[in-house]
Specification:
There is one protein chain. This protein is an alpha/beta fold and 240 residues long. It has a single domain, classed as Glycerol-3-phosphate (1)-acyltransferase (3-Layer(aba) Sandwich). 45% of the residues lie in helices and 15% in strands. The protein has a seven-stranded mixed β-sheet with strand order 1-7-6-2-5-3-4, sandwiched between helices. The longest helix is centred in the N-terminal third of the chain and has 27 residues. The chain starts with a helix and ends in a 6-residue tail after the last helix.
Amino acid sequence: MFRTVVTWTVGVLATIVGGLSVISLALFDRTSPAVERVIKWWSRAWLWASGTELSVEGEENIAPGRSYVVVANHLSTLDIMVCFLAVPVPIRYLAKKELFRIPLLAQAMRAVGIIEVDRAARGAIHASVNRQAKELIELNRSLIIYPEGTRPRDGVMKAFKKGAFTMAIASGLPVLPLSIHGTFEAAAPGKPWFRGGPVTAIIDPAIETTGMSGGDADALRDRVREIIAKRVGDLGGPVD
């Protein structure tokens, strides 16, 4: 209970301070390195307050200055903070439209380029996401996607949807597999409690998509899922 209270208190304060900071910085230059420093500070604040200790392997598999479609398994809200810290290039993610209704958070997410997703838009969602993703890539940003689509309530890694892989092929960006273990135990989805503990993030070598077509998306999805599933399993995590 104490850790949960501390986490929410520190996390909300960090979000307010960090949000105001990136909004101000983005007014002058949304690609400023200072924006990335604020994002990482915000991420560290949440992990520190929750008692989460992050260990990262495979950072040498990322080329500085290059853009990727980062693909990771999804276990907890803390995955966002883990990914911001684990990947040593600027990354942005997809966020559901409802989060953009929260004052300050909405302005901060738009300022740094978080992609807004309206699930009710159905067919139009792909065009909107692709347009926003193209703008990010032009700013030399990477995009992180959780292809399970949602956080599994039982902590078991689920099947991957192929949207992330179709996008990577269409944009010509390499896919970077990122495996996460421990965040489900640190902060399980659907529950308000934070328990903290060790978290591991492993970055595997990127898979180039040059020369691939839309018909290769299924095979690429299966290949990446196999890589992440093996890592998760080796770390002791359950896989469906």
